[in-house]
């Protein structure tokens, strides 16, 4: 595949565009069908001349980011001063779509499932010396089977060495880490802060400070204590603990994606008495996980990785979950959470969606 738009083929002959999924300052996204094999895809059409540098960056990062936890770029065309990016189609839209169009929030188990898959996406980016820099519910897309994928690398930053850190103010104000706002060097832990804010957004419907003007929020985030859930009694202690690990103002004390996964591995080892043997309950859960993974799309290895990261997130079963049997955070709870997410996504069908400019406060200000 090409690393920059293909000039030799006409995208209108290669793709059949269907409905508009959304549009913003940087282009429009359509659901489409690839003529050659009938595959359903998403096509992002961008004015290429006005955004040539941004386009090269986005295409380059997406081409080099081959992970099942990230929205994949399959092809790229150029026609009439426009670039056509052919990407994974996520039938459920974004987590933000679900919140806005369906007027609901996500249960704790549903948030946990999204966090596990998102952490895997971030871990992949960080291990490949890349930052996302715009993690939010609008960029957590939901597949047809209720899984989450991180999207929108238009503001991603590739770090050329493991020691290098970005030093640019970019992203969406309400989700920004304090060190990003303060214009000091930052690394992947800035994405972890944004993921914690996203967890609150999914649970409550909006990020903290959403009633505050974005410019004021920029001053408040570095100076105020880290945000917490508004109604703490509704949520489990592990959920609060997860947020506390993400939302540490000092980045050197904040958890990394690797740290979350190492904690899960250590917990499993401790539970097994330091040996590889696990309890029959763990074995049954892992067998269930393998069955769910095999029947729901990703490979067993991908499902097992999600199961490990799910254990690292280690919360679930707060108020609003469907039943006590789904609580406790195992593979059965994960499968139940995905079923509920699929039902949420089904309600989006036929409803208009709006993609906002990453720096735009319209959705936040209009939701108050």
From TrEMBL:
Keyword DNA-binding applies: no
Top-level taxonomic group: Eukaryota
First-tier enzyme category under EC: transferase
Claim: DNA-binding is one of the keywords in the record: no
Gene Ontology cellular component list: cytoplasm
Keywords for this protein: ATP-binding, Kinase, Nucleotide-binding, Transferase
MF-aspect GO terms: ATP binding; protein serine/threonine kinase activity
Pfam families: Pkinase
EC number(s) recorded for this UniProt protein: 2.7.11.1
Domain Protein kinase: 15-278
Protein's name in the database: non-specific serine/threonine protein kinase
Binding site for ATP: 44
InterPro entries: Kinase-like_dom_sf, Prot_kinase_dom, Protein_kinase_ATP_BS, STE20/SPS1-PAK
């Amino acid at each position: 595949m090409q690393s920059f738009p293909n000039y030799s083929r006409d995208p209108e002959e290669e793709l059949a565009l269907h409905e508009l999924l959304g549009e913003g300052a940087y282009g429009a996204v359509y659901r489409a069908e690839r003529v050659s094999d009938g595959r359903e895809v998403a096509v992002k059409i961008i004015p290429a001349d006005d955004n040539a540098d941004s386009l090269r960056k986005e295409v380059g990062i997406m081409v080099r980011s081959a992970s099942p936890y990230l929205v994949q770029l399959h092809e790229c065309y150029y026609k009439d001063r426009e670039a056509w990016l052919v990407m994974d189609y996520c039938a459920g839209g974004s987590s933000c779509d679900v919140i806005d169009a369906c007027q609901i929030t996500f249960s704790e188990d549903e948030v946990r499932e999204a966090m596990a898959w998102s952490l895997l996406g971030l871990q992949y980016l960080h291990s490949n010396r890349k930052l996302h820099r715009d993690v939010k519910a609008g960029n957590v897309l939901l597949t047809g089977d209720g899984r989450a994928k991180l999207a929108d690398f238009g503001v991603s930053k590739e770090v050329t060495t493991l020691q290098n850190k970005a030093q640019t103010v970019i992203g969406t104000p309400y989700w920004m880490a304090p060190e990003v706002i303060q214009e000091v060097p930052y690394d992947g832990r800035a994405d972890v802060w944004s993921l914690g804010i996203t967890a609150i957004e999914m649970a409550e419907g909006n990020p903290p400070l959403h009633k505050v003007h974005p410019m004021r929020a920029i001053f408040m985030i570095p100076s105020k204590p880290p945000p917490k859930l508004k109604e703490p009694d509704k949520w489990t202690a592990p959920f609060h603990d997860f947020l506390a690990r993400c939302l540490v103002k000092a980045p050197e004390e904040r958890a990394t994606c690797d740290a979350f996964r190492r904690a899960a591995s250590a917990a499993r080892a401790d539970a097994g008495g330091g040996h590889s043997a696990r309890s029959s309950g763990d074995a049954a859960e892992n067998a269930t996980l393998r069955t769910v993974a095999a029947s729901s799309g990703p490979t067993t290895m991908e499902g097992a990785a999600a199961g490990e990261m799910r254990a690292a997130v280690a919360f679930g079963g707060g108020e609003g979950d469907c039943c006590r049997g789904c609580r406790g955070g195992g593979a059965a709870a994960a499968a139940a959470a995905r079923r509920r997410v699929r039902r949420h996504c089904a309600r989006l069908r036929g409803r208009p969606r709006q993609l906002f400019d990453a720096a735009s406060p319209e959705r936040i200000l209009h939701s108050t």
